[in-house]
Amino acid sequence: MTAPMEPIAHNNDPGTSHLAAGHMEESGKLSAHQRLVLDMVERDPGCTCAELAKLNEGRLRQHSMDILMLVRRRVTDLVRKGWCYYGPRTSCAVMGNTAGTVWPVEGDKQ
Question: How far apart are CA 42 and CA 78, in angstroms?
């Protein structure tokens, strides 16, 4: 994934957040997580982030203690890159609230 994107740490985050963000990018973990979540969205389009996390709990457990946070953050990255978009809101089967759905954008994602 070589498309330019916004920094994953915010300007007002502590210095340690920027160090961690740099490590995520340099180690390839960020790109690997983005690809993993993109695959999930392409396999199960129209799910909420919580539904994606629940459906893929086994695949994600090795990557993060907080699976839902990982999915939400990487979906945000993918939306910023133009590889996914937020669709209509629906009742989330996992959280029981109204939440946005996530859909893949068709086409090349290089």
Answer: 12
- Residue 49 burial (CB count, 10 A): 28
CA-CA-CA-CA torsion for 69, 72, 55, 91, nearest 10 degrees?
110
**List of residues 6+ apart from 6 with CB closer than 8 A:** 80
Q: Which domains does the chain have, with CATH numbers?
A: 15-104 (1.10.10)
Reported as a single tens digit per residue, the pLDDT across 36-79 is: 999 999 999 999 999 999 999 887 777 666 889 999 999 999 99
Q: Report the predicted TM-score, pTM, of the whole model to 2 decimal places.
A: 0.79
Cα 82 → chain centroid: 12
